[in-house]
Specification:
This protein is an alpha+beta fold. The protein has a domain at 30-66 and 110-282 and 368-477: Outer membrane efflux proteins (OEP) (Up-down Bundle). It is built from ten helices and 13 strands.
Amino acid sequence: MRTKLLLSFLVILIPILNGAAQEIKTTWTLQECVDYAVANNLNVKRSTYGVETNEVGYNLAWWALAPSFNAGVSNGYNWGRSINPVSYQYVTQRNNSINPNASSSVTIFNGLRLQYNIKQTSRDLEASKADLQKTKNDVILNVISLYTNVIFNKELYEFSKSQLSSAQQQLDRIIKQVNAGALSRSNQLNQEAQVATYELNVVTRENSVNLTLLQLKQALQLEASVPMDVVIPDINVEDLVIDQNREDVFQQAYNTMPEIKRDNLKVESSDYAVRAARANLYPRLSAGANLNSNYSSVSDTRHFVADGGVIKDATPQIGTVDGTSAKVLALPQDINTGYYVNSYTEMQQIKDNLSKSVNLTLTIPILNGMQSRGTMQRAIINKEVALITARQTSNTLRQSVETAFNDALAASKTYASTMKQVNAREEANRMTKQRYESGAANFVEYQLSENDLFQAKSDFVRAKYDFIFKKKLLDFYQGKPIQY
């Protein structure tokens, strides 16, 4: 029985543990880092709420065209002397009153202010979306830069370990030669010092890898204790060819970058804000309707209810003419027929006391403390500021593109030079090593050759990833997806 329970428990637990293990990711690709950073970055989330706020404003601008409708009811008690709201007579008793009401209004013309508000808020909405994309782009570029630093330092770390391994092998050979009496003790000591230097280089490079990984974790909103490693992509640098000129790249960037679109939309928004503010100077025409009624407990007493019938009253004698026997008769009159009831209910009173009204209102602004003109002047100033901001953003983009283009060209040339340097240093090191092993070169010459080769490889790796990043930056400005 216990065995069956244990097996059932394991059947349930194993999938849960497998799912938990899958959630703990340790090796990340560049695309995974970018996606995770964009999804968790706080600035991106803040910009997302900015878009939602502008969506609310845009919807409200549309709803402002719809008629307004409001309904309400009040219920209260009065004691002492008061007016019967039905008969408008003074009474002195407790009075319960109910007053339902409804009203509606619609703007017919107000200088097209509402229409301009709709266009303004639509531009604001699109500008906030472009600003969100700009925020995402900033996060993406930062992650790519940090990711590039990680793989750059990882390659230098691997070079350092390779250099240390080679030096350690050389030390082992020297120790054997010293023990055999072929070399002096000083050669061994010099090589041991060199191994210690390379060990320090390995530690330094390892620290650089850990530091850049920490910076990448921070960009991804991960804790430092989370295990993490990155995939080193297989990049063919020779395929990264710069085949555009500066102006072409700038024009593509101008048509692609969201900050340009954002600022141009803000210029359009400010223009509609000026038109909306100017509309406040025009007359305003609106229509309204009201519906009111009331009930009073004072009137809730016996009363006559007509049934629609009419009878002719008799003409009884009401007197005689003085000094004669002539009769004075009353004038004939119509008398409504009906019946009396003992209660005048709430619904009946509200129905009988119902009043309706419609109205047209024309409002002509003449003098209101210069508020409307002041609002329009501020809107004009804001439009000029938006134009300056748009021009400044365009100039900044041009400078960034030109700088990136020059940096990419310089990086490509540096990469080509360092490649030649590595080839030359490798050949020189090979020849020096042969001379050293044959006794034609001393230890100092050999170590200088080793150090020069390591430095050349380090410069080559640095130039390689510098060129890769700066070429990818040019692709980014042209709206191309950045992928490794």
